[in-house]
Specification:
The protein contains 1 helix and 11 strands. The protein has about 140 residues and is mainly beta. The strands form 3 sheets. Strands 1, 2, 4, 8, 10 and 11 form a 6-stranded mixed beta sheet that branches.
């Protein structure tokens, strides 16, 4: 195990949160938006979620968190929408979920990442990444 001062702060924070929140599953990812975002614009990631045929029904509610870039700049959670905000999947059912970010004007460029918490039947989370382009000239 690396020395504490050699570990990225994100790894340390993730372990602390996992300990505080108890066991949590993380869905495959991270999920990256294919379209580069621009200040004042919007971008969307569409995820298809499916339950196996032999699964018990699953209820999921989505709560976005802030997105941050390596410089510490933030895209606040109130600029992120998950549509629909909750789903119920029965055995063998599937549903699309859209994660949309509205980028505020004058947002610093960079790669912003964060988690969408999924509460309900199970505690899970989705990691999403949005790339914000610099000012166009």
């Amino acid at each position: 195990m690396p020395q504490l001062d050699q570990q990225p702060i994100s790894d340390i924070a993730r372990r602390v949160l996992d300990t505080e929140q108890g066991a949590q599953k993380h869905l495959d990812g991270p999920f990256r938006c294919r379209k580069t975002c621009h200040s004042g614009g919007t971008a969307t990631i569409v995820l298809s979620l499916a339950a196996p045929q032999d699964a018990t029904p699953v209820q999921m509610q989505f709560e976005p968190g802030d997105l941050t870039n390596p410089n510490g700049d933030i895209l606040p959670a109130n600029r992120i929408n998950v549509i629909p905000p909750q789903i119920r999947l029965g055995p063998g059912e599937a549903s699309d979920v859209a994660v949309t970010v509205t980028v505020p004007d004058l947002t610093e460029p960079g790669e912003y990442h964060g988690r969408i918490a999924c509460t309900g039947t199970d505690q899970t989370s989705l990691v999403v990444i949005f790339e914000v382009a610099g000012v166009q000239t």
